[in-house]
Every structure is written in C-alpha cells, then in structure tokens.
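Example record

The entry below shows one chain as it appears in the dataset: sequence first, then structure tokens.
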Amino acid sequence: MQGDNGLEIPIGEKESIRVKYVAHEVRTVEGTIYPERLDILGYDVNDRSLVALEIKGPQAGRVELENLFFQGLEHRDWLERNKLAVKFVLDDRADGQIDARKRVKLVLGFCGDDIPDLFHYFRDSAMASDPYLKIGFCRLAEPPASGEHIKVLRYEG
C-alpha cells in the first residue's frame, strides 16, 4: 500500500480498486478500557474515497471473524460520521487526495479458505438499511516469510 502503485485489489475480471496507505491503528470509537482502533486507513486512488481495512490472521476462528465484521462496520460508520475531521488531520499523508464527499468503503481481509456464509448474511442485512454501503471481502495469502508482502487472492464486493 505504501508503494507508488498502492495495493491492487481485484474486484472483477478487468476491474480493481487501488488503495494507497494513509495510516494504521487509527483511533476510532471509545472502547471499554482502550480506544478502538481501525487496522488500516487508506484511500481509493480512483475516486479518492476513504477505505477502512480490518484484517484477521490465519488463526481466526468464527468468533474472531464475526468480530471482524461488526468491528469493521462500527469503524466504517465512525469514519463516515467524522470523515471531514479525518481529512483535516490526515489529508497531508494522502497528498491532499481524500475526497470527503465520497462514501467510506469497508474492506474485510482474512486468511481463511472461504468467505463465511455468515458474512454474506451480515452484509445483506447491513445494506438493506443503507443501499450505498460498500463492504468487500478479501481473501489474503499468508506471507511465506517474515517481512514479505501479503497478497490478495480474491475479492468479493
């Protein structure tokens, strides 16, 4: 994400989203003990919208994957409500490219073999109340060695 081209996330046969890095571990809503943090904040190079990325590693079970969805949605909603403030504070890291008029996208990444059916149910339920909501799922490949890049194997939006 930090390279010149950003992270290329395929969304179809000939389409992709190119996401550039803005920040990681971004404080969002208040938690019970510590503030909640968004894993990675980026922006879509094509339409300049903010992109919230939440990720879970290969050891994530069902409870962690459910948490991934709901926590990601909560963080995306917080970003949507506060995107002007986020632009004000972090726009210089994005070379002035953040467009706060665009809706925030949510991308959930995990290393599992298949996208759980539960995710489709949760996404459909969330989108029933907000037809402009964009939630995508990325299947990530584990890096073969420490320090190597993670690859996106599949995206479903």
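Notes for this example: The chain has a mean pLDDT of 80. The chain has two helices and seven strands.
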